[in-house]
From TrEMBL:
GO terms for biological process, alphabetical: carbohydrate metabolic process
Start and end residues of each DUF3417 domain: 14-120
Superkingdom of the organism of origin: Bacteria
A single GO molecular function term of this UniProt record: glycogen phosphorylase activity
Modified residues (N6-(pyridoxal phosphate)lysine): 606
Protein name per Swiss-Prot or TrEMBL: glycogen phosphorylase
Biological source species: Agromyces ramosus
Amino acid sequence: MKPIRKFTVRAVVPGSLSALEELAGNLRWSWHEPTKRLFEHIDPELWRSSRRDPVAFLGEVDPARLDELAADGRYVEWAERERHGLREYLSEPRWFQSLGTDAPSTVAYFSPEFGITAALPQYSGGLGILAGDHLKAASDLGVPLIGVGLFYKAGYFAQSISPDGWQQERYPVLDPDGLPLSVLRRPDGSSVQVTLALPDDESLHARVWKAAVGRITLLLLDTDIPANTDDLRSVTDRLYGGGGEHRLLQELLLGIGGARAVRAFTELSGRPAPDVFHMNEGHAGFLGLERIATHIAEGHSFAEALQLVRAGTVFTTHTPVPAGIDRFERGLVERYLTGSLLPGVDPADALALGVEPGSDPATSPFNMAVMGLRLAQRANGVSKLHGQVSRRMFGDLWPGFDSEDVPITSITNGVHAPTWTDPALLGLAEATLGTADTEHADWASGALSAAEFWGVKRRMRLQLVEDARRRLAAAWSDQHAGAQAPLWVSRVLDPDTLTVGFARRVPTYKRLTLMLSDPERLKAILTNAERPVQFVIAGKSHPADDEGKRLIQRLVQFAQQPELRERIVFLPDYDMGMAELLYPGCDVWLNNPLRPLEACGTSGMKAAMNGALNLSILDGWWAEFAGEDYGWVIPSADAAGDSGERDALEAAALYELLEHRVATRYYERDADGVPLEWVRRVRRTLATLAPELGADRMVKQYVEELYRPAAEQAARVAADGDRGARDLAAFGARVRASWPKVQVVHVESGGVESPHVGDELRLRAYVELDGLAPDDVAVEVVYGRSRSDESIEGVRRTPLEAERSTDAASAASGPRLYTGTVVLDRAGAFGYTVRVVPRHPLLVSPAELGLVAVAD
Ligand SMILES: *Cc1c(COP(=O)(O)O)cnc(C)c1O
C-alpha cells in the first residue's frame, strides 16, 4: 500500500549519549574514522546495513541497546572524548588563521552538486565529489568558506541493470528530515524563504537547508514547499533531470537564490559578507547578475557594477566537451531575465554576457560558461593540460591575443585524503609508521615490511570481492522477483588475482568499451592460466544518453558469458559508497579517455592514494604526474586517420601493456609470494605521488593564487567609495571608443645591420592613440624565435617607453613615439612585432578588455 504522507521520526537518544547526536549532526564523521568507530561499536551489523549513515543508524538502533550503553561509563566517556575532539576541531586556529588580515573574509562557493557522503546523494560524478572534497579540505584548513547548492529531492538517480543489460533509472525520494540538515531560521523561529520573481507575476520560493561539513556551512535551496505551485515545487526534483526551461529555473535559483540565501545567512549569523565568490562551473553564473543588481540599487551603472562584481569573482571551467556546457535558447533566457527578477538591470546588458563570441547577438545561444568568464576577473581550468585546452577553447573571447595570453590559469584538482583513504591503510600507518596522516606518511620506510604491506592490500582486495558478490547477489534478486542468486555469483572475483578497476560516468569520450575493441584478446588476458587479470567496472549513463546506455549494455553482455563472468563484473549503481571499497580493492586503475577531453579526472588520484598503480592515457592530471613508479602510460594515437583507427591502436597498446608489463610485473613473486618490485612501486606512489594529489594542496592553491588576489582586488575597486570601479568602467568606455583608430603606424629599427648575440635591437614605434593619453596604453615589443609558419615561439615582451614630447601641439595630434631596446641573447631565427594594449592599474591581464592593436 502506498502511504499518502511520509516523514522521519528521529530517535530519542538518552541524555548521557547526547554526544552521539552532536557527532551525527556534523558531516565531519564522513571523513573521521574515530567517530565512525564510535558509531560502529553500537551495532556493527546494523551500522553496515544502514550504509554507515549515523542519522539513519541512530533512528534504527534498538533503544534497549542505547540504554545499555548509556549506563556504560566507558562508552559514555569515549563519546564525550569524541565530542570534545569535534568541538576543538571546529574552533581551533588552523592553516588559514596564520595568513594574516589581508586574507579573504568569506568565500562563497557555488556548485550545482556536492558529493560529501553516500548518505547525502546530491552529486552525479566528478564535479560534485570535487566540490565535496573542496569543502572538506577548506574545513581542515580553516578557510572561511560557505557552500551554496540546491537540495534535489531525488538526487541524481539509482541505477539498476535489466537482464539484457539495459540501464534502468529509479528516483528514490529523500526525506530531508532523515538527513543531517536543518532549516535556516530567524531568531523568532520562522524559516528563511528566498523568492525569485518569475514571468506572468509568478514567484518561485525556496527554503534553505543548512548542512554542517566540519567548519563549513553548506546552504541548499529547496523548492518543495507549499508556498509554490505544484509545477514549481518540482524545480529541485532531481539533478540534471529536465530539459531547457527546468534547467534554467534550477540555475536561476542556484545563482540568484543562492546569492540571496548567502546574504540572509551571513546577516543572521553575524558573519562578514563574502568578498570572494567562486563559481564551480558555469551553472551558478546568474549569481553575478544578482550582485550586479545589488550594486545598481546602490546607484551604480551596469558597467561600474560589473567591475565591482568581476573583481571578487573566480570562475572554474571543468570541461572541454561542448556538450558539458550549458547553453540556453536566447528567447527563453530573455523571458526570465526581467526587471522584476533583477531590478535595475537592463535585460539587454544581461543577455549580452552570454553571447558566444563571433555569433550574432540576436540569435546566439546563451552560454553559461561564456557568461562565467565575463563575470569573473580570474578563471582557471583543473589541470595544466586542461588550462592549455581552455585557453584555446575560449580564446575567441579575447580576440587578437595568442592563447598564452588568454587569462585562464589552472589549478589541478585534488582529492580529500581522509575521506578517500581506506581505514586499513590508516590503521597500518598508525601501527607501523606512527602517524594518522596517511597523505604525508613515509610509506617507503623500513619500519614497514613488504609482506606486511601486501597483507593489508590483500585484505582491501578481499573486501572489494565480498562487496561485489553481495551487490551482484542483491541485484540478481531484484531482477528476478526476489529469487536467490545462482551459486556462481558467490564465486565471482578472487582476492589473489590482479584486479583492474574502471568506474566513472559514461559519456562517450571516456570510452567505457575501449577494452572490448578485440574481445578475443581481452578474453585471453582475463583467462590467462598463469597470470589472470580480473576487471571490476561500474558507471552511470545520463538518463537521456542512449548511446552511453548502449555502451553499458555491450559491456554487461560481454561480462555475462559463462566462461568470463567470474573475471569481469559490472557493478550497478556506482556511488561514493561503492567507490570507498572499489579504489582500495584495485591494483590497477584504468583510464582511457579520448585525449585531451578528460579535464582532470580524480578517480585515478583516489586509487593512487589506496595503493593502486595507474594505467592511463596521458590526459588530465596524469599528463603532469605520470612516472615510472606510479604506473603506465597508454600511448595516444593522435596521428590516427579516424576515430575507429585511433581506438584500435590505443586498445592494442592497452592489451600489450596489460599482458606484457602489468601482469608480468604483478606475478613476479619472492619465495613468500610477495611481489617485491610491485610493492616497492606502490609504496613510492603513496610516499611521493599521493601528497601532490591532496585536496589540501588544491585548496591552498585556490586561496593563495585566486581567492586572496581576488579579495585584494575587490577591496581595491571598492576603496574610496567604489572609486576604482568607477575609474575602471570609465576607462573601459573611453578606450573602447578610441580603439578602432588605435594603431601602430610605423616601426623603425636600428643596431642590427649584421646581428650577433649580445647586440641591441633599438626600436622606435609610432602609435596613433586617437586622443588617448600615452599612459592609457602599454606599447610592447613582442619577440622570440621566429618559425617558418609566421609565428613567434617562446614569446617574450618588453615595454617601449613614450617619448615625453616637449611640444604641446605635436603631443595633441599625430602619432606618439615609443622607444626601447631588446638584447639579442640567443643565436638563430629571431622575430618580433609591436603591439598596443590598454593599460590600467586595476586590470589584471593585458588581454582583459580583449583589445589589442598589432603592427602589420
Ligand atoms: C571520484 C568519483 C568520480 C569521478 O571520477 P573521474 O575519474 O573524475 O571520472 C565519479 N563518481 C564517483 C562515485 C567518484 O567517487
